[in-house]
UniProtKB/TrEMBL annotation:
Name this polypeptide is given: Ca-activated chloride channel family protein
Location of the VWFA domain: 97-202
SUPFAM superfamilies xref list: vWA-like
Highest taxon of source: Bacteria
Lineage of source species: Bacteria, Pseudomonadati, Pseudomonadota, Alphaproteobacteria, Hyphomicrobiales
Signal peptide feature range: none
Pfam families for the chain: VWA_2
Entry-linked InterPro entries: UPF0353/GerABKA_families, VWF_A, vWFA_dom_sf
Length: 306
């Protein structure tokens, strides 16, 4: 009990300032309705108490008093009284991810059947399925980088757009991974959410390594290699280290996607502070039934004129 009293506070205490006008309104109303106060300056007080009728039986509960009481309860309810915490409804929500997909002629190589790009689409579909409910954005890059879709919880749109991407529609060939991850980082920052970046690529040009090292990213990066298991991953591994990320090799089963999903879910938790998954439980709504009952009194005949 003492802990609850120590934690008691109002989430929006400024609403309690309404109690001042309420008290002033109640005082003025009582003065205007007090017949004795209006005649005290004209009739002798000893005589006045014998001339006024109905004062002894004057109702203690009147509209002005109940209005003041209702105003008090409403101000407290809106101010948000709270003394205990509860889990946030969004505490278990999966953090967002921006997919950076390479769309270049090299991605049409059939060494990962049917092609590297098709395998990337399949892996993306598997990832969206196991991370259902998480917001996803999509960036396509080759010689230039382009935001295809900002963060959205509608993952079906991401899948359709990924199917439509092809090297023929890209403005120019090349490898502008540095600009692609920079766009992804800005997209996450603009959303105000703590998320991560997933790069799906088959290779990184050597000249890109210096540009990647110069980039200061605010969000963690995971890189999925789209090369067969028998091909070396040295360049991709160097690129992943240059941006402080981790490289995950493609597998024939779903173990690579499971590893990526665990990393994406864990990435946001490293940025959380203690207690962020909880919020104060407001108890002001418990006063609404009392306010509703008080409101019913104003439907009584003659109550407003009482």
């Amino acid at each position: 009990m003492s802990e609850a009293l120590a934690a008691f506070h109002f989430e929006r205490p400024l609403w309690l300032l309404l109690l001042g006008p309420a008290a002033g309104f109640w005082f003025l109303t009582r003065r205007l309705l007090d017949a004795g106060a209006r005649w005290q300056g004209v009739i002798d007080p000893e005589l006045l108490r014998h001339l006024l009728l109905g004062q002894a039986g004057h109702a203690r509960v009147d509209p002005s008093g109940l209005l003041m009481f209702a105003w008090l309860l409403a101000s407290i309810a809106v101010a948000g009284p709270a003394w205990q915490r509860e889990p946030s409804p969004f505490a278990d929500a999966k953090p967002p991810v921006v997919i950076v997909l390479k769309v270049s002629p090299s991605m049409t190589t059939p060494d990962l059947a049917p092609t590297r790009l098709d395998r990337a689409r399949q892996k993306l579909s598997d990832l969206l399925a196991i991370r259902e409910g998480a917001s996803v954005g999509l960036i396509a890059y080759s010689g230039s980088a382009h935001l295809v879709l900002p963060l959205t919880p509608d993952t079906s749109v991401i899948g359709h757009l990924a199917q439509a991407l092809a090297p023929e529609i890209m403005p120019k060939e090349g490898d502008d991974l540095a600009e692609a991850v920079a766009i992804a980082d800005r997209a996450l920052a603009a959303s105000g959410q703590v998320g991560s970046i997933l790069v799906m690529t088959d290779r990184v040009a050597a000249e890109e390594l210096g540009r990647l090292e110069a980039i200061k990213l605010a969000h963690p990066v995971t890189m999925l290699s789209l090369l067969p298991p028998d091909q070396p991953l040295e360049t991709l591994d160097e690129a992943a280290r240059a941006i402080g990320g981790r490289l995950i090799a493609t597998t024939v089963d779903q173990s690579d996607i499971d590893a990526i999903a665990r990393r994406l879910d864990r990435a946001a938790r490293t940025e959380e502070v203690a207690g962020e998954g909880q919020h104060w439980h407001e108890a002001g709504y418990w006063l609404t039934p009392i306010l509703a009952l008080l409101t019913l009194l104003w439907f009584r005949r003659g109550w407003v004129l009482a």
